Known about the structure:
- There is one protein chain.
- By secondary structure, this protein is of the alpha+beta class.
- It is built from three helices and twelve strands; from the N terminus they run E-E-H-E-E-E-E-E-E-E-E-H-H-E-E.
- The strands form two sheets. Strands 1-2-3-10-5-8 form a six-stranded antiparallel beta sheet. A six-stranded mixed beta sheet has the order 11-4-9-6-7-12, covered by helices on one side.
- It starts with 20 loop residues before the first strand and ends in a 9-residue tail after the last strand.
Amino acid sequence: xxxxxxxxxxxxxxxxxxxxxxxxxxxxxxxxxxxxxxxxxxxxxxxxxxxxxxxxxxxxxxxxxxxxxxxxxxxxxxxxxxxxxxxxxxxxxxxxxxxxxxxxxxxxxxxxxxxxxxxxxxxxxxxxxxxxxxxxxxxxxxxxxxxxxxxxxxxxxxxxxxxxxxxxxxxxxxxxx
Length: 177
């Protein structure tokens, strides 16, 4: 199935490793494996990567969908609304509606992560920003804020740049037998 065909709801959908839609926005390579077109709007699923020093998303809040980040490689410095945490492989951040969040790669290696959006639809934000930049617009904070507003998302002003002081995410919890 191509990215523009309608899936058959009576059959499971198998996506090959190369199946998806690549949307490069401001130094972040978003590879959408599933979009709302594949899931009847229930969710969108992407793998993304960003090089060291790249800000993936300045702090913001979604009022219309939830986002779940799962780090595969490298490190993401995640804004949590109360500061930052450094998250490495295996860490999961749930940014539910109304939860301030943002991310950047402050580490020395390219970071790769998965992101699940529910419901789907926010993939159109990335399409819109990509189209604007491809048409000659600069990805300024004002432009991003304008596009975010179209998708029930608002920018969040934090006291220091790029984000408040960071700390390392806690390791695995020890469980008693």
